[in-house]
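Listing S7. Sequence submitted for prediction.
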Amino acid sequence: MLILKKYNSLKFFLKDRVFLDKNEKKFIDYNKKKWKNVNNKKNKGIILVDLFSWNPLIFFWSYITNLIALKKNYEIKYFYFDFDQNRMSKFKYYIKKAKKIFKSFNVTKGISEYDFNYSKQDLIKYKRNFKKIKSKRNLINYHKGGIKIGDLIYDTYLRIHYEPTLKLDDERLKTIFLRSEKIFEVVTNYFKKKKVKILIPSHVCYMSYGIIVRIASKLGVPVVKVKAENGSNAGFRLTLLDPKYNLDEPRYYNYKSEFKNLSKLEKKKAITIGKKIIKNRVSGKFDNNIPYIKKSTFRKSSLNKIKNIQNKPKIILFLHCFYDNPHRFRSMIFNDFYEQIYFILELSKKLKNYQFYFKSHPNEYKGFFDIHKKIAREYKNITYIDQDVSHYEILKLKPKCIISNHGTVAHEYAYFDVPVLNTGDNAHINYDFCLHIKSKKELKETLLNLDKKISKIKFDRNKIYEYLYMHYQYVRNINKENQLLNDSYFASKNVNLNKSSEILKRYIKTSIKTDSKIKEYIHFFLNQNGI
């Protein structure tokens, strides 16, 4: 049985990472013909693109890299730092197929972690730096060369090893730290020696992507990213990252000022659009603004009901995934979501006049519920709400308040006049239809004096509509995306198809129809952003 399992694992690896199938070979031929006039030997500058194996992104990158190269006479090169850290990814063959596909649209090697050599002096220096890390907060705030990278290391550890919180004495953390030190130094030296003009990453989080993004921004190199929702399956558009924050988020901290600059007619239309968005969502229909939620969380009824309802005011804690990039916004008052929930649940022991509930995210992986079971065993005063329970079932409880870090529940529950406490920076930060807590001390004081604190909330539905327009309509059409782009150009509604080479066959087949629109969009984006 073990031999068969190893055989199947090797077979999958060879098929997935090493050998090209017929669709991939045709896509390579298609690219060679399409981009044959791009001269990749000019030395006026370099476009660095992430060697990331996701077909919808690869198709978009083939366009933007070559159109910029044609316009500026730049070379196109790739960077690669292993994220998976599995047994197979330790071998160079892991990127063999990706290299062939990228080469077909003129991408050659720039930086590869497979070329790294750790000298004895390197290891001594890196280990010395690691010994300076005495706490979780130390690591989060760790800077190198004036650039913060500690939060990237922290989040990489959680995500790769599926740990809900950081373990400072874990040798696996040391390994990630040492790799991060090396990546930082190699990238810094590369940028010093080469004329990198544009960086195109797949992600901005985790050390495999975030370190090079932050170095580029510090050096004034524009970072252009394909922004897409739902695991890069929907909402395709290009964004120029704000070098101050390097977030994979729209510039939500400017929403109010940008809305003020709209004309009276535009503002009136915006409010109408925002109202339509929330009305549609709470009606129980599928909302394509949040395509990652496949089944509406506002269904009128649920198969699973809320248990153990007591005659007390209710406080609901909405959980985020413990493992997935907790530091995605500018700041948060807890080191991670694990510490967030335990702080609040410990405090719940003093708030016996309230009944506490906690609910996991509707997209939480089924295999990661052990931590929820552990919480339920430790805190008998807390009631767990199944992830499939509808928001309408929760609204029937008439919550005294709900607590989130940055969830969409902030505007969804505010719409129903339910007070919301956010424990970190979030996309609603410009608005006062919910409370934005700035410290653990403030959170504690708020929960201990809840009536007084939540009375400061201003439930203005027009502000909610304004936010919804800015977040889901305005920033997604800055470069005429609605007129020029369509998700079907890059991805399929069938996510499994996007993972396979079948999607490449569709790109070739539909290229005549999509080619002019994609090119027009990219040229418009480049001109708008002075690239």
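Caption to Listing S7: primary sequence and predicted structure tokens for the chain studied. The mean pLDDT is 93. The two ends are 56 Å apart (CA to CA).
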